[in-house]
């Protein structure tokens, strides 16, 4: 039965990449651009208006974890944990590795991570309308990275 809950957590984690892509493309670069645009403008601020999205993205995971614990619903708890783990992975990748908002890592030699970082920086180019995912980049970036010698 534990394997079933691990599967639920993994599926919730993977589903969050779709949710993040959809939200990034259609909400953050749409009606909520006012919060997100400072993330696309170089600055030296510690916090961005864009950081408000942390609370929006954290809410479903927190609610599912609380409900799962309160009502002993292990599958709900597992989904909440998967969402929370996605949030942690997003934070470590996007804020720590890519944008170096917290200086823990100085880049990476890992080809998969490098390809995903490149895709994210391409997204930040002026007038770019591509690469709205966070942890999974379009295939061309991985292909390009693995073709380097």
List descriptors.
64% helix, single chain, 149 residues, 6 helices, mainly alpha
Would you write up a description of this structure?
With 149 residues, this protein is mainly alpha-helical. It has one domain. The mean pLDDT is 95.
Kindly state the percentage of residues in helix.
55-70%
Radius of gyration: 17 Å
**Cα separation of the termini:** 45 Å
Order of helices and strands, N to C? HHHHHH
Question: What structural class do helix, strand and pairing data support?
Answer: mainly alpha
Q: How many domains comprise the coordinates?
A: 1
Unreliable segments of 5+ consecutive residues? none
Shape estimate: globular
* Secondary structure tally, helices: 6
What is the residue-mean pLDDT, rounded to a whole number? 95
User: What is the beta-strand fraction?
Assistant: under 5%
Based on DSSP secondary structure assignment, what is the total number of beta strands? 0
Please give the largest β-sheet. Answer: none
Summarize the structure.
The chain is mainly α and 149 residues long.
Write the layout of secondary structure elements.
Elements: H1 2-28, H2 33-36, H3 53-70, H4 74-98, H5 111-123, H6 139-146
């Amino acid at each position: 039965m534990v394997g079933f809950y691990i599967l639920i957590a993994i599926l919730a984690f993977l589903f969050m990449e779709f949710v993040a892509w959809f939200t990034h493309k259609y909400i953050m670069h749409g009606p909520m651009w006012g919060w997100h645009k400072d993330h696309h403008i170089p600055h030296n601020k510690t916090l961005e208006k864009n950081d408000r999205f942390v609370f929006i993205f954290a809410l479903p995971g927190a609610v599912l974890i609380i409900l799962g614990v309160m009502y002993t619903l292990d599958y709900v708890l597992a989904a909440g944990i998967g969402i929370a783990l996605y949030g942690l992975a997003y934070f470590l990748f996007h804020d720590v590795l890519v944008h170096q908002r917290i200086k823990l890592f100085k880049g990476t030699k890992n080809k998969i991570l490098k390809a995903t970082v490149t895709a994210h920086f391409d997204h930040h180019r002026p007038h770019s309308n591509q690469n709205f995912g966070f942890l999974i980049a379009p295939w061309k970036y991985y292909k390009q990275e693995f073709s380097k010698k």
